[in-house]
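Why do we care about 3D structure at all? Because function follows from shape, and shape follows, mostly, from sequence. That is the central idea of this module. The next example makes it concrete: a single protein chain, its amino acid sequence, and then its structure expressed as tokens.
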Amino acid sequence: MRWLKFAALNVMRNRRRSLVAVFITALGTAALLLAGGFALYTYDALERVTVRDSGHLVVGTRQHFEQDEDVPLQHGLDDAAALQARLAADPAVRHVLSRVEFSGLVSNGEKSTAMMALGIDAAAELRAKGPFLNLTEGAMPAGATSEASGEGAWVLLGADLARSLKASPGSRLTLLATDTRGALRTLPVRVRGVISTGVPELDRRQLYTDLRGAQRLLGSERVSTLQVFLDGMDDVAPAQARLQAQLPGLVVRTWEAQAGFYESVRALYHRIFGVMGLVIGVIVVVVVASAMASAVVERTREIGTLRALGTLPGQLLRALALEGFILGGGGALLGAVAAMTVSGLLKVFPVQMPPPPGRSVGYPLQIDLDFLPVLHTVLLMALLATLASAWVARRTVRKPIVEALAHL
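And the structure:
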């Protein structure tokens, strides 16, 4: 404790130089924490979006995941209802949803355009996810299926697709697709709503339709995949292992295996923020080392005097290293407080970010700061400053006493 007090007093001998070192360290720490917090928020947001869209687990045939289909549902799942019941029996499974994926044309009678369609059970999707589509017009079908209601098949159109077809809620369209035998089939549908995905490419082609209507159009009772929603993310690995053991003829994939975009973003951010952290660490080391080098040069004769009075080189090195610890640790703590303040202010006063490439809507800027990453960053900055101080002082404290006393 005495040495720490001694180091603190020495730091205050040149307040301007010490404040510059503390300020730059605080700025670097805050920048590193804010960048890392933004990355964590991005990972968490992408994780939620991916799981909300595909489920925690996806069950399908091996051919579905590894091969292209010559005709729709070529690699689909048979007896989906019985398979859903088996999956739902697992204690961690909350919901199991069927989906039919296909492509084709959608026509208003005068114009036809390509579509990427998903057949869904709207009521089951709403129970599992809540409102999961951004409807700009119309309403989400939430009752019985089209066959039970007698209303015919319905569709939800992407905003640009609806604009291209001059369609709105209540409009009648026709879906055209190749069935499982390669024959062209049609299905009359009624538009129930217009959606915006936030991705222009999807808005030009995306179409949701009733699951039973999609199966009638394709001439098969198969489904493409089953999406499994669990109680939480901690259940993913155990549930995958259990379900894969129960279904050896099928493939049970996790949401991460389905999320190529998520993995790409993580890899990109890791590289960007890794380089950023390295640069900030170098800056902190250089600044603290420069401040301590000036202090050591100015106090060379003082160091010689202390050596003459019997102070050991190791004791002097420890005292000078503690000065760097105070500079680095103090600056890192100030930077952590600044980062947490900014994080809190963003929750009170939201800031909207512009749309990222490939999207048409922005998103709120948020910074997720957890205690352990903040603590590790502060300790790392303090450690770097301590090592930098010890490095620049190592020669001076071991200099011969006579030479140190004669230093000018």
